[in-house]
Write a structure and sequence with these properties.
- The protein has 350 residues and is of the alpha/beta class.
- The chain folds into 2 domains: 3-150 and 314-349, Quinone Oxidoreductase, Chain A, domain 1; 155-292, Rossmann fold (3-Layer(aba) Sandwich), CATH 3.40.50.720.
- Helices cover 29% and strands 27% of the residues.
- The chain binds zinc ion (2 copies).
Length: 350
């Protein structure tokens, strides 16, 4: 095969083992389109996968990975309608089937046959027919493709917000200031809620303030994070809403302790497998605390997320601090896995 039919892609081989390899450019089949990737974004999930060497549901090595991307359609398979070569697009990393038990009950994020799409750390990616039909979106020229790629993680947060907005909230705590926590800060500010942002590192707290957080608390400078947060809430009662965006059982428990009576806690961060937390029965019964979880996103949430990026309500530039080539990806993943907190996301351009 000539070099022209080849591309480079990052292939996960195992624990902290990502290799940049040549492979044939995939060709679009029936209902599929081929996208030349403009930008792929690093994500906490990818860093976890890099550290662990696999993903229980999505990625078994050796495999191409990466799932936040945007690009341009360069080839179209048979039977595709409504798309043209040259279209700027962003695709979600999954698509629901539309007719399983959960899809029929309006929970497409829990689809029993959710089709995942990975392979964004490459020059090209084929978008499967189901994603083309249900979760492929046109990006207007006013929005940079690197910014459009934020639609996937933002869609998870848009969906997470659905559960929270039933509470008449004035004060919210966001615990954890990774990309997800920072998106929550912004979404809550847009909803008119006063946000207390809790995390570490001056750079992250600074971004939270730029996004509109009223109060920031550096968790490394306080003896008791729960007490520090409660003191920052009206009468020291705790917050109306608490969003946990860290993903470990300790943070889940802290989040529950930070809510006021009749408050709601979104336990958003995915914890390691087989972990559990202790729950005070008193808090649930006498204090009327509600706990909620959310997983993934839906096509409706993805659409809304893209619109928030197009309108500028969610300022994309604050989420991307670094740019690198595909060739540099292993090094970037290593530094993210090592705890480099000054980068929220890195834009990987093939
Ligand atoms: Zn992601
Ligand atoms: Zn389904």
């Amino acid at each position: 095969m000539s070099v022209n039919n080849e591309m480079i892609a990052a292939v996960l081989h195992g624990r902290e083992d990502v290799r940049i390899q040549r492979m044939p450019i995939p060709q679009p089949g029936n209902g599929e389109v081929l996208v030349r990737i403009d930008t792929a974004l690093t994500c906490g999930t990818d860093v976890k996968v890099f550290r662990r060497g696999y993903h229980a549901v999505m990625i078994r090595p050796p495999a191409v990975f990466g799932h936040e991307f945007a690009g341009t359609i360069v080839a179209i398979g048979d039977g595709v309608n409504g798309w043209n070569i040259g279209d700027r697009v962003v695709a979600a990393n999954s698509a629901p089937c539309g007719d399983c038990y959960y899809c029929e009950r309006s929970c497409p994020e829990l689809c029993e046959d959710l089709l995942f799409l990975n392979g964004a750390y490459a020059e090209y990616i084929v978008i499967p027919a189901r994603v083309v039909q249900k979760n492929l979106y046109s990006v207007p020229s006013s929005l940079r493709l690197s910014h459009a790629a934020l639609a996937e993680p933002l869609a998870c947060v848009v969906r997470g917000m659905d559960a929270l907005m039933h509470v008449n909230a004035r004060t919210a705590v966001v615990l954890g200031l990774g990309p997800i926590g920072l998106f929550f800060v912004r979404m809550l500010v847009l909803a008119g809620v006063e946000v207390i942002a809790v995390g570490r590192r001056a750079s992250r707290l600074g971004i939270a303030r730029e996004l509109g957080a009223a109060i920031t608390i550096d968790i490394d400078t306080v003896a008791d994070p729960v007490e520090a947060v409660r003191l920052a809430t009206p009468r020291g009662y705790g917050a109306d809403l608490v969003v946990e965006a860290v993903g470990n059982p300790t943070a889940w428990q802290q989040a529950i302790s930070m809510a006021r009576k009749a408050g709601m806690v979104s336990l958003f961060g995915g914890c390691p497998a087989d972990t559990s937390i202790e729950l005070s029965t008193h808090r649930i019964h006498y204090d009327e605390i509600s706990l909620t979880g959310t997983f993934h996103h839906t096509p409706a949430a993805f659409r809304m997320a893209l619109d928030l990026l197009i309108s500028g309500d969610v300022p994309a530039a604050l989420f991307i601090q670094k740019q690198c080539g595909l060739i540099d990806l292993p090094g970037v993943l290593r530094s993210l896995a090592g705890g480099d907190l000054d980068i929220v996301k890195c834009a990987v351009t093939p």
